[in-house]
Amino acid sequence: MRVSPPSWKKTATMGDARQAFRELTDLDGENSRPIFLYFTSTDEKMAGKVEAYENAVLTNEKVCIAAKFFDCYQIDVTDLDESHPMRNLVKKPKPLTVYTIHKGKILYKTKEKPSASLIFSTCSRTLSKAFKVSLEKIAKEEEEMLDELDKILQEKQAIDKKRLDKGRRLTSREDAALTKR
After folding, report:
1. How far is the C-alpha of 127 from the C-alpha of 119, rounded, in Å?
2. Other residues' Cβ atoms within 10 Å of the Cβ of residue 71
3. End-to-end CA distance of the chain, in Å?
4. Could you tell me the pTM of the whole model?
5. What strands, in cross-sheet order, belong to the sheet with 35-40?
6. Distance from C-alpha of 5 to C-alpha of 51, rounded to nearest angstrom
7. 106: exposed, middle or buried (C-beta count within 10 Å: 0-12, 13-18, 19+)?
8. Pairing with 150, which of 52, 86, 107, 161 sits 20 to 30 Å away (CA)?
9. pLDDT digit of tens for each residue in the chain (181 aa)?
10. Which residues pair with 100 in a beta bridge?
11. For the chain, where are the alpha helices, taking DSSP H only?
12. Phi, then psi, of 150 in degrees rounded to 5
């Protein structure tokens, strides 16, 4: 994986979920970063679905690039009882849904089990609306940079292999000739 997955502010306890709710409903704009809110579930019946979905979609390179611009929260729907204040913001949270929030307002909500491209598009529209920023342009530039780094790493591996194949130390002239290629 070329890009790190989202850095989740996990909300394992009710107290953590209440803190997340305070940050999610920050109406005065103290928290200027938009929020990526992902609802998951620890219900045993959902375990395989959740893991497969998260491994396939939430580790997608474009989703990971997009997530860098958000405070990312992962909230377990089984922790949210009917009296939880989060229910004021999200009435009926379903597992495997994503919301984007800015300054206390829900900007976008995805369908259940959104694709990576839908999540990227949702994040892109959120950043465009909140900051007039083109996530597509940023992601394209980052992908080009990562492609260039991949090429450099491949060239380095080829040089290292040639050095090993020679079975001896190269002279500085031979070494310089290999690195110019």
Report:
1. 12
2. 19
3. 27
4. 0.71
5. 8-11, 71-76, 35-40, 97-102, 105-109
6. 14
7. middle
8. 52
9. 567 777 776 554 445 555 666 666 665 555 578 888 888 888 888 888 888 998 889 889 899 999 988 888 888 887 777 777 676 667 777 878 888 888 778 888 898 889 999 999 999 999 999 888 898 888 889 889 888 988 988 888 888 777 777 665 656 666 666 666 5
10. 36, 108
11. 14-24, 47-56, 61-67, 86-89, 116-131, 135-166, 172-180
12. -60, -45
Q: DSSP letter for 69, please.
A: T
Which tokens is 163 given?
């050095």
Token readout for 24 is 């999610």
What single-letter amino acid sits at 67? A
Count how many residues are written for the chain: 181
The string over 142-158, giving b where at least 16 C-beta atoms fall within 10 Å of a residue's C-beta and e elsewhere, is beeeeeeeeeeeeeeee
